[in-house]
Design brief:
This protein is mostly beta strands. The chain has one domain. The protein is built from one helix and four strands. Strands 2-1-3-4 form a four-stranded antiparallel beta sheet. Strand 3 and strand 4 form a beta hairpin. The mean pLDDT is 82.
Amino acid sequence: MNSASIVLSVQKPSGHFTTCESIKGTYAKCSNLFSQMSTEYVDHGDLIYRVDLVDEKENVVSRKMLRNVIEGDLFSFA
């Protein structure tokens, strides 16, 4: 696998997820960044986010669920 993406999606009231942000890079870089991401939940609020590690064939390799992530903060270290 040569390339990959990390995709941040937010859950809408309907239950469906909509993509908010994504980054692309080598599989090694994306996999490393994905493994460093926390899965911690904030006690308050009700926004749910999903982070997917996606390979070059657009298959989801791994997934994490997050709560109350501020858009942009998730990838601030990338």
